[in-house]
Each structure stands twice: as structure tokens, then as C-alpha cells.
Amino acid sequence: MLHPPLDQGFTIASVAIRNRVVLAPMSGVTDLPFRQLAFRYGAGLVVTEMVASRELVFNAAESWSRLKGAGLTPHMVQLAGREPRWMAEAAKIAEANGANIIDINMGCPAKKVIGGYAGSALMREPEVALALIEATVKAVSIPVTVKMRLGWDDTSINAPELSRRAESAGVQAITIHGRTRMQFYEGRADWDAIARVRDAISIPLIANGDVETKADAAEILRRSGANAVMLGRGCQGRPWHAGVLAGHQGPKAAEIPDVAVEHYRLMMEHYGADVGVRHARKHVAWYLDRHGAVLSAQEKTAVMTSKDPEFVARSLHEALAKAVCAPQEEAA
User: Fold this and answer.
1) Which of 118, 171, 210, 223 stands 20 to 30 A from 253 (CA)?
2) Catalytic site residue from 45, 108, 162, 268
3) Residue ranges per domain, the chain?
4) What SS3 class is residue 230?
């Protein structure tokens, strides 16, 4: 099956997407600073962290922080919840605050989320999921999309049927992560299984799961018949990577220390130093691990536990500047 070039644009309803490589919504990862860098380096579309719908309606500070788009266009906001009224109200708030697309989270496997019967737990209750979708679609004038998994477990693969019904309810695109909820992130994503969703819908399909390289992206498109690919964990420690797969130039090896420190400083500005230092630790670790920093365990611990932003920024830059990064790694 022929697949479209990754650098070619596509549309979700009337919203133009500049290429076919999408940055996945990852809670605690794809905050505004991460998305700003990913979009600057060429990601076709970036999606907010999961925004809890009820908390947004009731003005929770964290939800409002996650909602921010800072001029990124299109601005795609992912909402999570279980109750149609809160999803509808949250969608209205997101649209009023600049959202161009609303995405409904039906794929998150985290215990905290499914414990509230949201995320991938909705796949066990199709009628509840459809009521949620219908309420959200009716609430806004912008496109609504859904991200889901193949099913709850291997005995309940219902993504094709749910996707078909979602399209009938007015959804304008579907993203499928090629695992069940019970797999979490174990094993390999089943790219062939995503093709059964392609057979069930006519709207754009975005394929997600284990995409790291350009070869992976081409293969998942070929095997799934999807219109675009979505990258998640492969972008940790390299927010430019989605853009690289779409044909854009990532930073040269010598520039990575500056990008990492810029990312760190953007997080300090976004969260404030007290909160930002804690939120940034995982990103610092990903940069150090991925780019081969020459640090002893003791030195790394000192960087990771420090509450001094200037010390962390300086140490991160120095460590990455010592690293030897092969330029071809970023073009994989």
C-alpha cells in the first residue's frame, strides 16, 4: 500500500496540518515548553497534555496551565473525563481560549485515570464513550478527534467498531495506539491491527506506537493505511525528533547543549523555579541518558537533586558539551 510522504500536509476537517508527524500528548511531558520546541523544529501538530475536564471547569490552576497554547497553530487540546456535561463545558472553554481541535482521551492506561473510569476505561463502556463524544461534538464548532487503544485487552479488541461509531457521531479523526490497555507499554505495538480501524472509517487515521525512525514511520503507514503517524516516548530527550522525521533539520550535535538549556529555562519561566526544578528533572535525565553525557553516578545525582536552577543549567550544558553525538543519529 502506498503511503503519503511524511512532509506532505493533510487536514482534519477544515484545519490544515503542515505535515504528517504528530507529537503525542504525554502527561507530565508535553507541556508548553516541550511543545514550543517540537513545533519550532517542525512537528506537524503538537497536542497538549491531558487536561482534566471537570477540573478545568472548576478553574484548577494545573488544568489552565495545560490548556495554554501561546500562539502555536493549530492548537490541539486533549480533554479527559467521564461525564458528558463536564466534557462539553471544558470543550467550550478550550475553544474560547484558542483551541482549534479538541481531542478526547480514550487511551490513557494510567491507574489514576482509569480509576476514575476515564481514559482507556471508556473502551469497556462504549455507550458511555459515545455519550461523551456526542456531547463534546455538539458543544463546539471546531473539529473533535479521539485517541484510543486497540481495546481493553486481547479479548475485547473494539477499536474498529468504536471508531466507526465515533465517526458517525461527528468525530473528524481517530488516533490508535497499537496496544491494548492491559499491555500498557509492554511488547510491540501491533501496527497491522490498526489497519482494521482504517477499514472501518473514512476520516483521517493517525497511527501511534513504537515509532522511532523514518523507517518505522514509513512501515507503520504502510501496514496500517494511516494518514499520519504520532510519536511519543521517542521524543523524550529530543523534542526536535518529530520534526526530523518530517524532513526538518534538527540541532547539530554541538547545538544540543544549548537547546537542552533553553528547554530547561523555558520550564523555569513556565512553572516558576520552585515547581519548575522538580518538573524538569525527568527531562534533564532524558537529555543526559540519550546524548551520552560523561557523568559519574554521584555527579548525575547531584544534578538531578539540586534545587538551584543555575547549577542544573550549567551542569547540564557542561555534561552535554562533553558528549560525542553522532550526527546521523538524529536523521535515523
Assistant:
1) 210
2) 108
3) 10-245, 253-331
4) strand
Residue 201's contacts (CB-CB under 8 Å, 6 or more residues apart) are 163, 164, 167, 174
**Is 78 annotated in some ligand binding site?**
yes
**Is 235 noted as a catalytic residue in this protein?**
no
Q: How far apart are CA 207 and CA 161, in angstroms?
A: 17
Ligand-binding annotation for 177, yes or no, is yes
- CA 36 – CA 43 distance, rounded (Å): 10
- What was the pLDDT predicted at 116? 61
pLDDT digits (tens, 9 = 90+) for 105-117: 987 766 666 556 5
Pull the grid cell for residue 254.
Answer: 554541538
Residue 181, annotated as binding a ligand: no
Query: What are the grid coordinates assigned to 127, written together?
Result: 455507550
Give kind and range of the element (H or E) at residue 102. Answer: strand 101-106
> Is 233 assigned to a binding site?
yes
Average pLDDT in the chain: 92
| pLDDT digit string, tens, across residues 286-327 | 999 999 767 888 888 889 899 999 999 999 999 999 875 434
Give the least confident one: 16-25, 108-117, 273-282. 108-117
The H-assigned helical ranges of the chain are 32-40, 53-57, 61-67, 84-96, 111-114, 126-139, 159-168, 191-200, 214-224, 241-245, 256-271, 273-290, 297-305, 309-322
- pLDDT tens profile 154-170: 888 999 999 999 999 99
Tell me the CATH architecture of domain 10-245. Answer: Alpha-Beta Barrel (3.20)
pLDDT (tens digit per residue) in 80-93: 998 999 999 999 99
Give dist(CA 102, CA 145) in Å, integer: 6
Q: Are 245 and 221 in contact (CB under 8 A)?
A: no
Peptide bond into 109 cis (omega under 30): no
Residue 164 burial (C-beta neighbours within 10 Å; 0-12, 13-18, 19+): middle
Instruction: Tell me the whole-structure pTM to 2 decimals.
Output: 0.93
